[in-house]
Write a structure and sequence with these properties.
369 residues, alpha+beta, Umud Fragment, subunit A, Alpha-Beta Plaits, eight-stranded antiparallel sheet, 5 helices, 21 strands, 14% helix, 27% strand, flat
Length: 369
Amino acid sequence: MNLKFWQKSDKPKKKKSKTREWVDAIVFAVVAATLIRGLAVEAYTIPTSSMEKSMLVGDFLFVNKMAYGPRMPMTPISFPFAHNTMPLIGGKSYLDWIKLGYHRLPGFTTIKNNDVVVFNYPMEDFRPVDKQENYIKRCIGIPGDTIEVRNAQVYVNNKPGYVPPNYQAEYLVKTDGSAINDETLKDMDVTEGGPTNDAAVFDYHLTQANAEKISHMKNVLSVKENIYPKGQVEDPLFPYDEAHFSYNVDNYGPIVIPKKGVTVTLTPENIAIYKRIITVYEGNKDVDTIDVKDNKIFLDGKEITQYTFKMNYYWMMGDNRHNSADSRYWGFVPEDHIVGKAWLIWMSWDSNADFPNEIRWSRLFHFIH
């Protein structure tokens, strides 16, 4: 070791080999890309139609992680650029030997009502939080809001909520018995639905504009939005307690979004709403059982009457309201599951289109709102 570091050495520097230069370049690129992907911007693909027609299957977008503050890695040992599954060979892409707590750096803003948000699917608690599947929905409710759906119209704090310009719902189209031309539907970008058991009735997922167009077709007798009446229970919905909550997708709530620091009174009538928060989301996994006996609530045999939330929660819904697995089905999204804000569509690919129309040119570099 040269202790006289201020003196220049006469020894010539050893030149790196080409292999070493390539290795150094690859390592630098991987580290830089990992930091950018983890802390700033990450690419994401729309896999399902739950946000149609606001966002389309085949949209490639960037998620801005700095908007709400970058979330620090919670599972730090993982294969670069893989989310939860190894490419090609399958299997877990991470090791859960080391698990870190939830920490988030300061962001430019907070989640606002109607932001389009990417988050980890909260029902996959068999995986670490940051390795659960990524979902994208519109944030309908923020902490402290009261959410209700009345005849398919969302209400936030008892006021009509935002209706996205390309909001899509399920419509029943009655014709004179003849079908609507497939090419016409394709030109209108109607991609979901078809005939029912009644030869004269068709079930389509439509925007209001498309519903209006179809209503003026010569063979169409009526177009009516298919709204499930209040009290009619179809699918099992959160909080999975039909005795106290007879909800359906079009008539749901009211339900209050939990807010950090707020204390709620627990009762046999509302414990179903908060059970998963207490046992899964907020680190109380030592609590194995919640029982209701003699009109009292017991956690591991100890009576409890109140609970104070440790985190903020959010209510997410898809713009394709009749074809979206969202908070109506699985409840609240905890703040530690938030990945970032959907920001920009940089590519859009229509796999059903013919060459050379696969690329949806009008959607390129389209900001998300």
